[in-house]
Amino acid sequence: MTATPTRDTHRSVEMFERIKRSIAGGESSYARLRSGIELCIERTDGARMWDVDGNEYLDYCLGYGPLFFGHHPREVVDAVVEQITNRGYHFSFPHRLDYEVGERIQRLVPSVDLLRFTCSGTESTMAAMRLARAYTGKDRIIKFEGAYHGWSDLHYINYHPPLGPVAGTAQAPRVLPDSPGIPQAVAETIIPLPFNDLEALERTLSRRSFEIAAVLIEPLLANCGIIPPLPGYLEGVRRLTEAHGVLLIFDEVMTGFRIAPGGAQEYYGIRPDISTFAKVLGGGFPVACFGGTAEVMRLEANNEVMHGGTYTANPMVLAAANAVLARIERERDTLYPRLFQLGDRLRTGLVRVIREAGYACIGQGVGPLFQVFIGRGPVERLTDYRSAMAWVRPEVYSAWHEQMQQRGIYFHPGQLERWFLCSEHTEADIDATIDAAAESIRAVAQGLPPD
Ligand SMILES: Cc1ncc(COP(=O)(O)O)c(C=O)c1O
After folding, report:
1. Diameter of the chain by CA atoms?
2. What is the extent of the structural domain holding 36?
3. Is 279 considered catalytic here?
4. Residue 3 domain-assigned?
5. Active-site residue 148, yes or no?
6. For residue 6, with 0-12 CB atoms within 10 Å meaning exposed, 13-18 middle and 19 or more buried, which class applies?
C-alpha cells in the first residue's frame, strides 16, 4: 500500500470559511479552486508558495500562467517600486513607458505594427473582435470549441467550461452560451467550429464569408488541456482567411512570449492580422494589449473605433511589463531552450510514471506549457475538444492532483487545464515532481484502478 501523507490545512479551512462570508463563493474568479481542498496562501517566492498553515508547494499553476519568471522576481519588483515611489502609479497621460514597452512588443512580435494596452486578456479579445468587425463591416466571428477567450458575453460561448454540455455534431457544433445571462442573440454572432478541422473551416468560409469578420483562434488550444495544431493546420487557416477576405485574430494570451519570444506566431511561423497578449506580458501585473497591422490598427489610431479604460497603460503595470520584456530580450537565447528542456523532461517523466501505474496517458504541449491527459483506450493524440473530453478520466486526474497536493506539488486540479513552467524551476524540482507523481498515481490506483 502507498500511504497518503496528510497535511494540516486547518488554518486554510478556517480562513476560507471567513472569506466566504463576504466574497461570493470565496473567490473572485470562476473555478480557481478545488472544492474541499481550498488553500489560502501566505507568501510566495520563485517557484514556491506557502499556505497559511506553513505547508510548502512547488507551483506549476503560477497564478494561471503570468509568473514566467516565478513569484515576485527582483527586477520586476524593483522596476515597480521605483516607478510608484519616485514617479507615480496612475497618470492617464502619455509617458515614457508607453513607447518603451510598445517598442519592445514591436521588436518581439513583427506582425504588430501598432498596439493598444488594456487591463486583461478578456478586454484585449473584446477589443480585437470589435476592431475586426469595424474593419470588415461584418458581424460574425468564428471561434473553436474548447477555446477560451475570456468571460464576456461576446465570447464565453462554446468553450464548455469543465467538461460542460455540447450541442450539434462534432463537425458542425451548435451555438451554446456558456453562462446563464448571455443573450442568445449575442451568442448567435459566433460560429463555433471544431479545432484542427480545415474542411469544416473551408465549408463555412465558402458559404458564409460575406457575414464573417474574423477567425478568432488560440493557435494552440490551451484551455481544454493542451491541444496543438496539427501540421499544416494554421497555415491552412491563414490561407483560407486571406482567400475569403476574413481577418485572422491570434489570441496569444496564453502562448504570447511563452512558447517563443514572439509567441505562437513565431513558433509556428504564421502572421495574423490582429493579436492579443496578456499573462506573461505583465509577469503577474494586470496588463494586456492587442495590436496588429498598421492597416487594421488605423481605425484605432484615428479613434474611429471606441477603445478606452481608466486604467489602461497605467505606469505601474507598464513598469512591470518593461522589466519582463527587457529580461526576455536579454535572455532569450538561453531562457527558451532551458524551459523547453525542463518542460520536455517533466512532461515525458509524468507520462512515463502514469503509464507505469497502468493508466493510458498522453502528454501534449510545447515546452513550458503542457498537459498530461489520463484517459481510456489506445489513442495517440487528442486533436479537438470533443475527442479530448470523450477520452479523459477526470476523476483519476482529480484524485492524482489531490495526492500531489498532499506531497507539496501544486498544479490546477482540472484535467482540462494545464501545467506551466517558469525560469525558477530547476532540474531537481522536476525530478522531485516526477518521483511524487509516481507515488501519487500508485496511491490513486488503489481506489480508482486502471482499466
Ligand atoms: C487564451 C486566453 N484568452 C483570453 C483569456 C482571458 O484573459 P484574462 O483572464 O486576463 O481576462 C485567457 C485566460 O486564461 C486565455 O487563456
Report:
1. 68
2. 10-71+332-447
3. yes
4. no
5. yes
6. exposed
